[in-house]
UniProtKB/TrEMBL annotation:
Residues of the HTH lysR-type domain: 27-86
Domain of life: Bacteria
Organism: Stakelama pacifica
UniProt-listed SUPFAM superfamilies: Winged helix' DNA-binding domain
Residues making up the signal peptide according to the UniProt record: none
A GO MF label: DNA-binding transcription factor activity
Protein name according to UniProt: Molybdate transport system regulatory protein
Amino acid sequence: MRIGALKLKLQLFCGDAIAIGPGKADLLDAIARGGSISAAGREMGMSYRRSWLLVDEMNRCWSAPLVEAHPGGGKRRGARLTATGERVLALYRALERELESAAKGGSFAALAEMIRTEPVHTP
């Protein structure tokens, strides 16, 4: 999220892996909308392999998987967020809103008054 000159990128780590960040949260949203990892990847302009690797990494970072996939045919095919996935996504989005709200005053406001819109060019 970008607020004037301030760009906030909320990432939660699991060891060296990003358990969730803005892109992974968007991927979860797309899976929830489309019911498919491949459709979510296409919507976001990434390959199925890339989207699957991100889902796999998220599933390995949390206390329970965030996405449940059912390959093949039938009524259960596709992918959906688990209850844990829905909760993690909701809490992450809430934390984003809290962070954005906190950044709108105080220290940020003071810094925003002091920063230039563009760097000064040196001769």
